[in-house]
Amino acid sequence: MASMTVTQPDNVRVFRSLHTPHEPLALANAWDVASARVIEAAGTSAIATTSAGLAWSLGCPDGDVLTRERALEVIGRVVGAVAVPVTADIEGGYGKDAAGVAETVAGVLAAGAAGVNIEDGGRPPAELATRVAAARQVADRAGTDLFLNARIDTYLLGLGVPETRLKETLSRAHMYVDAGADGIFVPGITDTATIAALATEISVPLNVMAGPGAPTVAELGALGVARVSLGSGVAQAAYAAARRSAEVLFGTGGYDSLAEGMAFPEINALFPELH
Q1: 187, 155 in Cβ contact below 8 A?
Q2: What pLDDT does 7 receive?
Q3: I want to staple 134 with a disulfide (CB 3.0 to 4.6 A). Which of 96, 102, 204, 217 is the partner?
Q4: What pLDDT is recorded for position 8?
Q5: Residue 228: how many CB atoms within 10 A of its CB?
């Protein structure tokens, strides 16, 4: 494994440089060491964790239920298992208040991550701004340029009324950037006009979440998007494959659902030095 103290500053610089609409950073989110190694081997420039996938893998629902300690343990294992930069999704910060978020971010930095995602969810925007500011302060005190991505859930959760949702999203984005956010993540949008408006009006890199029916990475880049992630989609697809295999086995007694699986030697070869 690479040493975090040697690689983290380089990884932070590399991770920041990857955010450009000319060639958007495409992230297939991982939730454990195995998924991270598989995604790295596929040619990714960075690894992003999915908090939902991570929580599910540990037997918890998504939504600020998983403990900080368990999340940080997995994040540290993922960072230690890959050579590319890692950005960690930490939900609302795994803390009841800004002080708790600061403790989480300190742990993320100790784990060697190059970035974090913090989401507002159903919280008042001012509360996330306070959490973002606390995270920024911790990173600044540590002397690292941690990439802090603030997630706005207005579209994902359908907050407010559609007629004012864009205005509300931009208001939150400006508040979070003023608090120290380096990027803004707005999941739940596929409308090109809305995406273009967000990219135009937000001064930092824009991150959107993609899935079936969304514009391609290149098309999103042309709209001004600098980062495209799959969120919990990869984990959902993996669990769907497990369910499909089980249903076929218990239904027809067949095994054809396993035909598209990765070869055993191919997976095993991804872990030569992890003991």
Answers
A1: yes
A2: 62
A3: 102
A4: 76
A5: 23
